[in-house]
Design a protein that fits this description.
Two copies of one chain form a homodimer. Chain A is built from 14 helices and 16 strands. Chain A has 388 residues and is an alpha/beta fold. Chain A has two domains: 264 residues, Alpha-Beta Barrel (TIM Barrel), CATH 3.20.20; 91 residues, no CATH class. In chain A, helix 1 packs parallel to helix 13 and helix 10 packs parallel to helix 13. The radius of gyration of chain A is 20 Å and the shape is globular. The N terminus of chain A is likely disordered. At the A-B interface, helix 12 and helix 13 of A face helix 12 and helix 13 of B.
Chain lengths: 388, 388
């Protein structure tokens, strides 16, 4: 690939972000992330490939739905099959046969949500593996080392995921730990490697902490930034306020990743507030439960009303599934517990998410993001009859 | 598709079989089956799509592994989602988005193997659905009507699957019932429809009955013939003897389908004895259990020896899976119960089966089938170290 000089902030072949277009009436913008494994146009959604595979998807399927970056989980891969093993086999890209960019989270969230017991110290987290109960340690330096071993394109700092709700004092204490860990991750990073490192903003649901965290993290020189600790149960409006507060303090010449968020509405509002990258298990998990996203709302395919429905999940949808199969067939597959159901459903939901963001990009390029968002909500309302 | 006059035994666009080449030193032959949904070169293997889906495979995957015909189960589809529903939705091809030929078995074997209780009379079988316990009836006329409603290309007569072992008297009685039902199926068939109907030879493991059954069924004017009631636990040598006995009595200008058989060895020996079509759940079921077929024997992927193995399941294999993934990755997927494991494994096993028969066809065309079979066994022996 030929890279024009002005498009690279760092060395060619290394990580770079370039903002392409700003929406005139919001913080929405398009951009291009360049990594050693190719580029991604932003804003975009990263399918979640927890254990080195996006559940039910082959790399061919991911290409077909338009995925540009895939997210994997450091915590899971470290425990099984182990990052050293993956490294000896040539790295995670080769292991899972995904030739595009990969971002890994640092494992902080999984230590918080999955590990059996955990003890957090200044040094890091000691926890029991949820797989075999073995005693494990994850600290900032180890999180970076594991992600470097995996050979991913974008590494995340180890953070402490502040629980929701958290009072001001404990949220502040937790945030400070995340900041100290962020500096240690920067220190630990091998500068000879080509991998980017993103810092994570915490601060709970306290606007002053979010502002302070964004200022602190944003000044450390990371290749990009993330907003963590959201979508943990807080009200939608609170979430948007925290995003807006943090995004307003972060340098706009670096990509912004909104971690673990979320619903289609979250994406539309996140883009409006300047977010470039998203990940969430919602489209893949819901697909495996037979809940499909459409412009008009959700289709719950096991519903008896679809028993003999000859239409695709969404009329006009260009995905592999909608171009070939009826709701009646998909319902049959789900009722019969057939494996094909999960692949076909996941293809549709990921296609929906990725197409939604492709349309958001087009709207930003055309300078009419607000119209796009309005259209999104209007179609939702029209489809209220689809709700369960 | 343009069909040359001399290639059609019946009307154009309808079912036909043409033998292309005979091996000089065995009964192996190549042929071409023509159906309203395209052709199939024989001998070939039909992946089993029990409930209107070959487990874990999309139609794209089936094309990629080289499947020419798919088999579905009348019994299963009749009970769920129901053949009338499938008919109203445009037939089974459209329902499952498979544009190639489809063969359905008649349900006789499933009544024998799956139904909760069953009462067999001259009229047919009354049984309880294994899904909801509902009372169901399946007789020869109904079996044909259901398969006509599904719109498949090749229908099978309803037969009684004679259990193994069965003494001469009960095997004879069962065979006679199958013959009477075969005549009723022929009568019941709507001659205005374009679907072919195959008759089934029974007779247990009694050579005289197999001979008599093949003569009776072979004289009724079916579009093709099948040998049923094998692979029920009888010794390999007995099975081959029954195949040889029956095949020797059947008209050689019609295709011969060896039902529910079997292992790669069964295929090699079945072809040698004149069989053109095969089906079996072995490649697909084994794949989902992590057991893969290779020229050198079976690979049990959960085995610890594959933990860090960078090689594909089979070096040199051209399947989607082997061109992309290591044994180490596949082992990881199986150990972690990841859905992708089932698709990738099934792709490999079906590719192995279909390629084995493609090579058999090439050997027959070259007049050296015995060399091919010898090579098959030699590679097996060399790979004895792969055995579990």
């Amino acid at each position: 690939m030929i890279v024009r000089k002005d498009e690279t902030r760092l060395d060619q072949g290394f990580f770079s972000y370039r903002m392409l277009r700003e929406d005139p009436s919001s913080r929405a913008r398009t951009g291009r992330i360049l990594t050693p494994h190719g580029e991604a146009l932003t804003p975009t959604f990263m399918p979640v490939g927890t254990r080195g595979t996006v559940k039910a998807m082959g790399p061919d399927d991911l290409m077909a739905v338009g995925a540009a970056i895939v997210l994997c989980n450091t915590y899971h891969l470290m425990l099984r099959p182990g990052h050293e093993l993956i490294q000896r086999l040539g790295g995670l890209h080769r292991f899972m046969n995904w030739s595009g960019p990969i971002l890994t989270d640092s494992g902080g969230y999984q230590v918080y949500s999955l590990a059996k017991t955990r003890a957090l110290t200044e040094e890091g987290a000691v926890f029991q593996s949820h797989i075999d109960g073995s005693r494990q340690f994850l600290g900032p330096e180890k999180a970076v080392a594991v992600q470097e071993a995996l050979g991913v394109d974008i590494m995340m700092c180890l953070d402490e995921c502040t629980p929701y709700p958290a009072d001001h004092e404990s949220a502040a204490r937790s945030m400070e730990l995340t900041h100290r860990w962020a500096r240690r991750c920067l220190e630990a990073r091998n500068p000879e490697r080509t991998q980017a490192l993103f810092g994570i903003v915490q601060g709970g649901t306290h606007a002053d902490l979010r502002r302070a965290s964004a200022q602190a993290i944003g000044s450390m020189g990371f290749h990009g930034h993330a907003i963590g600790g959201l979508a943990l149960g807080e009200p939608f409006e609170t979430r948007l306020e925290m995003i807006e507060t943090a995004a307003g303090q972060l340098p706009r010449d670096r990509p912004l990743y909104l971690m673990g968020v979320g619903t289609p509405e979250d994406l539309v509002e996140g883009v409006r507030r300047g977010a470039d990258l998203f990940d969430c298990v919602l489209p893949t998990r819901n697909a495996r439960n037979g809940q499909f996203f459409t412009r008009r709302g959700r289709v719950v395919i096991r519903n008896a009303r679809y028993r003999e429905d000859p239409d695709p999940i969404e009329t006009g949808c260009g995905c592999f599934t909608c171009r070939r199969f009826s709701r009646a067939y998909l319902r049959h597959l789900f009722i019969a517990d057939e494996l094909l159901a999960y692949r076909l459903g996941t293809i549709h939901n990921l296609y929906y998410y990725l197409t939604l963001l492709a349309e958001a990009r087009a709207a930003i390029e055309a300078g009419r993001y607000n119209d796009f968002a309005e259209g999104f909500y209007r179609e939702r309302t029209d489809g209220a009859d689809l709700a369960v």
